[in-house]
Amino acid sequence: MDKFESMSAFTQVIEEGSFAAAARKMQLSRSAVNKLVINLENHLGVQLLYRTTRQVTPTDNGRAFYERCIDILSSLEEAELAVSQQHSEPKGTLKINAPMSFGISFLGSRIAEFMTRYTEIKIQLTLEDRFVDPISEGYDLVIRIGSPTESPSLVAHPIAVIPRVICAAPSYLKARGMPNNAYELKQHSCLHYSYLTTGYQWQFIHQGQEERVTVDAVFSSNNGEVLRDAAVRGLGIVLLPDFIVEREIQRGELQIVLPHHQSPQLTLCVIYPINRHLSTKVQLFTQFLQECFS
């Protein structure tokens, strides 16, 4: 039994979610991948996967073994690169997950620049705003905007600070009036980002004091651009990262509300499994993002 091939097949099944998808990724038949995993289970004497007609999920032993396999295979990849002296020309696929709004506003042109610089690296980019576990979902790195993640199995590399602003359309403020303080937001229609970790509480710092207000969310969404467009239409007051609303504020389509109140800043982070810290592709992309924000 080729242990490395069996381990690779096992990790691909978990990351792709099925034997068929793993077989396509490895360019093998489904039966060949299934046989590799069965041989691995027989060799170890434990069941690694729960199999149903609809999905494949790891057992507790399978989850623990998967993390060790990722570590071993990643180290093997680095060793092969070192021996073949390919660090100067990195190769392979980099799987990235990033927030929707940030990806649309920022990443497209930057990734094109990165791939022009490193022509042998392929990128698989998925955009979504939900929390993503890079280990269980098979991503090399995840880009997130929020509070830095604390996990013994993940590395969170801060890239930049992202300010947030509260704003509304001039038409809304003309009709409803400008709030004079944070607590007056309770009397206003607010547009709420539904993945906010504080729930419907908006936080502010005013004159050195923290203020928390539970807002009346007339419209909630898990996407900042949707909320921004609703605010431009005069639907209500919105609290968003500045890069989402900066253009509309410059055009006068949105107006800053409560300019002397600061909302806690967010952190743009690159998050990756701790066993990926030696990956040349992950290091290069992390350094590239740092350059973009320097």
Structure explained in plain terms:
This protein is of the alpha/beta class and 294 residues long. It folds into three domains: 3-84, Arc Repressor Mutant, subunit A (Orthogonal Bundle); 92-158 and 267-293, 3-Layer(aba) Sandwich (D-Maltodextrin-Binding Protein, domain 2); 164-264, Periplasmic binding protein-like II (D-Maltodextrin-Binding Protein, domain 2, 3-Layer(aba) Sandwich), CATH 3.40.190. 42% of the residues lie in helices and 27% in strands. It is built from ten helices and 14 strands. It has helices at 3-16, 19-26, 30-44, 60-84, 100-117, 134-137, 170-176, 224-232, 242-251, 280-293; strands at residues 49-51, 56-58, 92-98, 121-127, 141-146, 154-162, 164-168, 189-193, 201-206, 209-214, 216-221, 237-241, 255-256, 266-273. It has a five-stranded mixed sheet with strand order 4-3-5-14-6, covered by helices on one side. Strands 11-8-12-7-13 form a five-stranded mixed sheet. A hairpin with a 4-residue loop joins strand 1 (49-51) and strand 2. Helix 1 (3-16) packs across helix 2 (19-26) and helix 1 crosses helix 4. The chain starts with a helix and ends with a helix. The mean pLDDT is 87.
Report the top-level CATH class of the largest domain.
Alpha Beta
**Low-confidence runs:** none
Q: How helical, in percent, are the residues?
A: 40-55%
> What strand line-up does the widest sheet have?
4-3-5-14-6
CATH topology of the largest domain: D-Maltodextrin-Binding Protein, domain 2
* Tally of individual domains: 3
Mean pLDDT: 87
